[in-house]
Amino acid sequence: MVGRMHEPRARCFPQRRNASCWTIPAAGFLLMWVAGSCHPSARGAHGGTTAERRRVGTPVGRLQGPAGPAGGSPASGSPGQTSKGPGGFFRPEGMASHYNAVTTPDSRPDPAVVRRAAQIVEAVSDSLGIAAPGRDARLNLVASDLTRLPSTVPADEDLVAKLSWVHGLIEPAPVVFQVSSNDPSGKLALDTLRGRLPGLLATGRFGRVGIWARRTAGLWRLVVVLQETHIATHPIARSISCSRSLFLTGRVIGPFVGPSVVVTRPDGSTAERRGRGRGKTFSQTLRFNGGQGSYQVEILARGSAGPTVLANFPVYCGVRPPTVFALAPRRRAKVGRAMNVSQMDARLVSLVNRDRSAARRSMLRRWSLLDRVARSHSIEMCRTGRFGHYSPVTGSASDRLRRVGLRPSLVAENVAQAADVDAAHRALMGSPSHRANILAGNVTLIGVGVVPCRLADGTVQVDVTELFIRK
């Protein structure tokens, strides 16, 4: 289908010398994070309110485009089906037939709390000297859906990504800020938003915002959803007959060039179509020759920090997109069970080798020298706030390896930022290009560096670097 391009205002990053990486934006509630832990506390910072904020993505965390051999993963769950989870079912409000279709303004009248929240976003943006993000009807629907969640169910990365897809958004999952207040006027919730918003806006260059608030059983729930965007496309069908081809056309925006497309088929295999030169436009024909199911489509481009994921979304071939989702109740943090850095590193390697085994790939051998290089890069990303493959200080992954005397025949690198190690791994496996690095059959050694990092808004997350090489 050809129509007018939807081009929101905004920014995003992946890499590989035969390699790949990507970026997942943040999401969150105002529940405060426990110091020294990646788990949110059960209580908020202010009496009468609770809030939590976490980075989420597609499906979890923040990813820089991969650097190295490439691959991907289908959307989680069986297309057109859902099984009941412990938290029950959830049905979103409405369902888009296309991604990036021209949207009509939200016709619902804003509650007074929503209007005041929108004014706070404008005022804080002005005070920071940045352009205020524009209200987006699709993100309003995502925010509205999140206000309808049971209080026992968190707005985790998986769910936020799925809601974004349902409402026709292709970019990595947005940043979500949610606060709850038993103040009848909603003032406590608004005051909390005003105090936390400067740190939140500092985590990205956001071009869109969705805001909604709902009062249920005397409790106000206010949700603000922020999203970066660096890509414009013609409308893309969310569901298509397997006998037809999908024409994917558009352009990247801002500092990005050389777009390419990576697709994960229903069987978990990946295919890559690289762009040519340093142009900003792309035009690809996608054929669904992998059978019925969900095809995860990822669009990457090169930026100053290396390859970056600008879009990551499922297209359903021969099956209907899911209309309801199973919910999982909030998991309580187990006191005394937080992992130290060595345990987090070991956990990440075990997850990688678990999925390689499932894909009938050989196990990767961990090498302490690669760990040292990977950890140094994660520490630098945390210290400088620059998230990506390329560093103005240490260069590319290949440059960093040469400094320790390594010149492998193949280098691949993944970087991610997420709430914890498991979330980072899910995010990487949910990205076709990063998944391909993890499951590459031509690498033999792995090094990882997991570093707890406090973000500008006070959130503690982990910065992750994975290095894959063949000697």
Explain what the structure shows.
- This protein has helices at 112-128, 137-147, 157-166, 187-201, 341-358, 368-384, 397-403, 421-429, 432-438; strands at 16-17, 20-21, 49-54, 62-67, 89-90, 98-99, 134-135, 175-181, 208-216, 219-227, 231-233, 236-237, 239-240, 245-252, 257-264, 270-273, 281-287, 293-303, 306-317, 325-326, 365-366, 410-418, 445-454, 460-470.
- With 471 residues, it is α+β, with helices and mostly antiparallel strands.
- Strands 1, 2, 4, 21, 22, 23 and 24 form a seven-stranded mixed beta sheet that branches. A five-stranded mixed beta sheet has the order 3-8-10-9-7.
- Helix 1 runs parallel beside helix 4 (187-201).
- Mean pLDDT is 80; it is low at 1-61, 70-84 and 332-337.
State which percent range the strand residues make up.
25-35%
Task: Specify the structural class.
Answer: alpha+beta
Overall number of strands:
24
Shape: globular
Number of helices: 9
What's the rounded overall pLDDT mean? 80
How is the biggest beta sheet arranged?
7 strands, mixed
**Integer-rounded radius of gyration:** 21 Å
* Span of the ends, CA to CA: 47 Å
Poorly predicted regions? 1-61, 70-84, 332-337
Short description:
This protein is of the alpha+beta class and 471 residues long. Helix content is 24%, strand content 29%.
Features:
24 strands, disordered N terminus, 24% helix, 471 residues, 9 helices, 29% strand, 7-stranded mixed β-sheet, alpha+beta
Write the SSE topology.
Elements: E1 16-17, E2 20-21, E3 49-54, E4 62-67, E5 89-90, E6 98-99, H1 112-128, E7 134-135, H2 137-147, H3 157-166, E8 175-181, H4 187-201, E9 208-216, E10 219-227, E11 231-233, E12 236-237, E13 239-240, E14 245-252, E15 257-264, E16 270-273, E17 281-287, E18 293-303, E19 306-317, E20 325-326, H5 341-358, E21 365-366, H6 368-384, H7 397-403, E22 410-418, H8 421-429, H9 432-438, E23 445-454, E24 460-470
Parallel strand pairs: 7-9, 13-19, 21-23
Antiparallel strand pairs: 1-22, 2-4, 3-8, 4-22, 5-20, 6-12, 8-10, 9-10, 11-14, 14-17, 15-16, 15-18, 18-19, 22-24, 23-24
